[in-house]
Amino acid sequence: MVFEHFALNVTNIGQVVDWYCQNLGLTIVSEQKVAPFMTFLADSTGRVVLELYGRDDAPKRNFETEHPLTFHVAFVSEDAQADKQRLVEQGASFFEEVHKPDGSHLVMLHDPWGMPLQLCQRAIKF
């Protein structure tokens, strides 16, 4: 089996998709223009990683009430400090950062809608 995607039901689907494309370099590979606006996003490798949609007939997670270690979307960063600053300037909010003994730098943010977002600058890439 090969991983295809992870899906989330979100509020403000159009704004969320735009923000992730503009600020994290994701690209739309498939998009439904009518409700529930299923949108598949790919990373810079071209692999689909995330499906976002806005269904009012299904629950949406309240990320504000959950700890980011319960769920988060993580991205590789070559410079976690600079990316943290850039994303905060674009509406993300800072939660915490960890400098691991191996030299890795992990930054936890919330996107403008509260979804936990992690930046992973790993000393040993995997």
From TrEMBL:
InterPro entries (UniProt xref): Glyas_Bleomycin-R_OHBP_Dase, Glyas_Fos-R_dOase_dom, VOC_core
Coiled-coil boundaries: none
Pfam families xref list: Glyoxalase (PF00903)
Occurrences of domain VOC (ranges): 2-122
Protein name: VOC family protein
Organism: Maribacter flavus
